[in-house]
Request: fold
Amino acid sequence: MREIQIDKLTKLYYSIGEVAEMFHVNASLLRFWEKEFNFEIAKKNLKGNRLYSQKEIERIRVVYDLVKIKGYTLEGAKQYLSHNRNKKKENQEILSIVAQLEYIKQQLISLKTSKTE
Reply:
């Protein structure tokens, strides 16, 4: 399979057939993964056909990589994604705390400077 470069995609939305063709899989597999991995498909056309954004295609690419390339079971891929999601959340919390501490540090330095003047 050729590497799909999400940033090189030119359209806002792609049909399920186009996405299936990108990954060389059946559309039914994409619908199955949508249910298994709780993907939210943000947009559907008037007929109810799924329209995939670049963000959704990136999620599919990650699942494809885990299941088809690296050989994860569906359960293993779910655990991997869950672990990484939790790790990302923890990192965001740490960054937030660091930013708050930097702000407090700047306030203390400002107070110290104003007292010495």
Notes: The helical segments are 16-23, 27-36, 54-69, 74-116.
